[in-house]
Amino acid sequence: MSEHNENESRRGGSRRDFLRNAGLFGTAAALGPAFLAACGSSSKGSSATTVKGGSGTTAAGAAAPAGDPGAQLAAMLKIDAKTAGKGVEFPMGAVLALTGPGSFYGKTMSRGIDLAVKHIAAAGGPNIKVTYWDHKSGDAPAGKQAITEIVAKKIPAKLASYVDDLGAMLEDTAKNKVFTLDGGGGTSIFGQKQPYFWGTRGITPNDPMPGLFKWWLENNPGKTKVGLVGWDIGEPNNGIIKVDVLAKIAAAGMTHNGLYELVPVGGQDFSAVLPKIKANEPDLLIVSVYGQDPGSFANQAATAGLKAKVVGFEFTPDGVNASKGTYDKDGWTFAYDYFDASAPVSPLAKLFVSEFKAAYGELPDFYAANFYENTLVMWEVIRRANAKGGNIMDGDVLDKALRENLTVVSVYGGDATTVGTSTLDEVTHSVKKRPMGVFEYKGGKVTPKAFFGIDAEGYKKA
Amino acid sequence: MEIWYNYAAQILVFAILAVSLNLLLGYAGQVSVAHASFAAIGGYGMGYLVQEQGWSYLPAIFVGIALAFVAGLIVALPALKLSVEYLILLTLAVSSVILGIFVAFPQLGGTYGLIKISGNSLFGFHLEHKIDWLLPTGVGLVIVYLICWRVGESPYGRVLKGIREDPLATQALGKNVFAYKVTVFAMTSAMAGFGGALYSGLLGLATPGVYGFNFSLTIFAVVIFGGMANLSGSVFGAIIIVLLDPFLQRVLKLEADKAFVIQLIVYGVALTVLMRLRPQGLFPEGFSVWRRLRHGKQQTARIEMNAETWVPDLDVKIREGDHEPDHREQGMREARWQDAEVVLRARGISKSFGGIVAAEDLDIDLRKGTITALVGPNGAGKTTVFNLLTGFIAPDQGSVVLNGTELVGRTPDAVARLGLVRSFQDVRLIQRVSCLQNVMMAVQEQPGEHMVPLFAGGSRARKGEDETREKAMGWLRFVGMADFAESPAGALSYGQSKLLSLARVLATEADVLLLDEPASGIDTKWVDTMLDLIEAVREQGRTVCIVEHNLHVVGRLADHTYFMELGRITAQGTIDELTGSERLAEAYFGT
Amino acid sequence: MFARFDATTVAQLTANGIFRGAAYGLLGVGFALILGVTGRFHFAYSFTYTLAAYLAFTLRFRGPKLPFWIASFLGILLTAAVGVLIERFIYRPLAKRAGATALLAVFVAALGIGIAGQNMIALFWGQATQAFYGPDKKAWSIGSTRFENFDVWQTVCALALVLILTGLLRFTGLGRAIKATRVNPDLATIIGINANHIYLVCFAIGTFLCGVSAFWYGLQFTVEPNMGQRPVIFAFVVAFLAGTARSPLRVFFTGIAVALIEQWASIWLSVRWTQTAVFVILVGYLVSLSLRGRKLADLLPFLRPAPTKPAAPTAGS
After folding, report:
1. Does the N-terminal or the C-terminal CB of chain A have fewer CB atoms within 10 Å?
2. ipTM of this complex > 0.90?
3. Does a cis peptide bond (omega within 30 degrees of 0) precede residue A126?
């Protein structure tokens, strides 16, 4: 049995790809609502190569005051000045959804990057010179243009989202050895096992599902009927995800009640699907939609008098706005590797949250945290390469440096004195170990309900 | 440099798509917002074969073109009769459905599309870098440009322009408007498929997002910017629209998170302003950069016609002096009419529109070498008779036989090709082309109006065009309008356009001519000469039927007259006999 | 993929169809009035839709912070004024100049305004969703059929506006002038109607209806720069299916019919296909429209042997 399980979980790993999540698609779907979103030019070109960031502010010396974030960071990460790469200019690309319906993601991600760049320089690391490209919320030709320019400028590494712009950049990334971290959508079906491309976040809905079911059954014993509403992301992806979801439902001792409704990406009107749900109402309803859609769904589900417990996989301000107050009034339960800025765990997380708040006047969210973290991982990889005397301007060297040890620094996990880590999978390039949990938002506050890892590993109640 | 090769290749692909759309939109006037969907068919077709089936590019591109051609053919069939706004809506709906179908197929990658189209070769060249694509896309543009130019600037293109301006008038000249529309739609769809196949090859992608509605609108905007019916304008438009992107980034240094938004604002504002200030586009129809550079600005002065310059080329002598109807002569003419052979025989023609009877049981004979007139009060249904005879309106019952051939059930263009051609009361010239071209359009059986001679007929098309020009000039001289050959028809006065319209009808060389109020609106001092022209036509042995209000004109011309009231023929005979009847006079003048 | 459906489900879907259809219908009525009377293919309708919601939002939550209903009403009125300005200063001069090709010229300009307008909104207000909150949402029900208070208000409001418009067209001098202009603008001018004024009135009314529809949408869904795209495509569909020169009531009920088809289709189809189903029906309708009264042989004339001309006539000169 255990052997079977292991086998299963390995196969699961290769399929776990499934997608995406949140950051991704946005509106890539052709028929989607983004009808005119990119009107006029969807097809051409990237946008913009403005250099932000890259500030070479004063480096923190040994004598820096304890309050200096650079010094704190250097201490936490136990930086060795010999390999830190101080003063070296390191070019890094970032291809994000800076315009279009997903521009919320691009904005918060770039804030996380900019903050990390500042901290790294202050902590005695390299001056990371970030060049931003806009993939226009999932426009494949824009991504193609971006990767062409990245290669032309000989930039060895990049941060990415929307599964490297819906797969359009993956091939050129591999061919030209551009070391890439995607903390927005992680990997995906086509993003897994892609050379030089690593997804650093959990995959929703699949990764948190075992932990979610465990939490659910603990609190609602016997209520095992589960149904799903999810974004239609096309075949064969829908089918592959479904197989894995059904396997996870069965493995957790839940029963699928036959409800498996796919809805258009970005279609905010769920009026046609709600009666179908009501006609076959489960105990637990998994809602795998993202962006504004979960908010709209929660709002309409409340009106429709849905009795099933609704659980989503993302929590964003756009979702709160779209819920028209339902999140605040009735609550919104979600399960993923959420970053709880109100209760940062590790010293690194605390530093990040307080610095982010100081810089932008608000608490950071999941995407800001992921891209802050990715930038730190980039530095970690640079330090490893420096230690071996490798050329950090070569993406291949950076990739090998990561493979040396797939456990890297993380703003998630850890404890009051230890900085957390995240572990990647050598084969799939997705995350293997990452803290996640079930949370509830209500009345302006997020409360954790349970913590666990992928496959409910290390489950504990909050 | 790779970046600039990429922009260059994009310009070439955009130009292919825009030039082909221009043939459809600019020449034929068919407003399609589905061009990107046909490009998608080419791109997906090619991409599937290369990525999933391991084909090499060349056969895959040909399959892509063929698929797009077939799809274009299917969409063109219903597009036939729709007005512009419905065509916009139809193509909009069709593009939604086409993309919806692509997303449905797992083999085509669903929502993500095909994202690994690469690593293959064309004619033995491995296409790896962007620069490798410059040659195939460049050659592609040359081919598409030459095809579109050949078609657009040929007799075929002249008919397309006719369809654009006035499909009915074009059909009345014997052109099978439907076949032209379907052919040009399918042909441009095939070229879009070609462009799409190259684009997907260049990007290595065929995704629903690439070929979304936005892409259609972009190509549409390129055509509008560049100028409709001006192919080099479309190439120019493609350059502008592709290079706007690096311009905003590199020259204006816009922030990445604003650049695209601002770019779209620039597009939108530019489109609106362009429509306001220069609706014909940057390169208007007929404008050529080369000609402009060589000859400088051309003035097309409007030539005024006056009695001195207007010299119709008549074989018959213009009679001087008294043109009052001669009663005895009328009797002779009636006798001649009775003796002449019947060319067109209409029997029992009836038509009603939702209870309103427009024509009831009409019997009409038109006889060889004679002029028959149709008179009657306003609303009697005289023009309706022309519509019924020529197939513009299908009669509910009855038969129309022309030289032994039944016409009922045939389309107006078929009727015209059989030798029955009508003019329109409101003239209906093709405003934006020259007078000569207007008349040339009417010449029948031009080799250049068919695809095969155009592309495979050697010099046939050119010789045919020379002959057509000769004939057309002959008819222009006949009506005294040779000096106006190169003026656009839209610049003519009403009287002049009546003359041109007559020349156009004559140029069809049809046996039977139906002229709708040929002399109305013409300056009185020239009416007689117009009538001389019509008489000259009779002298050539042609059969003429006129609808006319002016009884003076009828009395002068008609060999035989039918009198119509409320959709029925109530009397016939010489005009004197008819006007002699008190009852008819009362019906006519409404006293 | 067959859902278990029963009377409850069908009743709920029907109710949804009527509520959503009222929104489609109201938008369709406004668009049909504009296109039918003025002949302007007003693609920028999506821009005015979005603008109405943003203006209402701004007057309520930014700047003046007016009371909710006043802010919303003012926002809609301002948008109607924008619609009038577009007609007066863009479409009218453009159409005058373009003459016979006015439809295409206006379509292109409208496209430009739509693109530029949407992105200007994104530039000024940002691209994120705005929190447009009004009175509290309440869930109501009849039997097992449930809906929001907003659903009912919107439907009542839409129906009332459509009835008022119908009455206006039928019983007032202005209405008769509008109808006369719709039938024949030249003729209307001859009998002393100023067609230009009528056009402005139609833009004011049409844009006002569009704004009202956007307001209810914003209250129930989200206010964001591209909110206008999908609803407006449905407005086109509804207006064309009903016929742009038809009475507002007919257009309105066509909107409800389209929404009912969309909702009921979900009984047999997965929800992701229902929108495509609407477009398939639209294509089918347009095809039937173009085939109406034609025989197959008419459609395929090139398949028939071309009739030969009986005798060659003598040439002219």
Report:
1. N
2. no
3. no
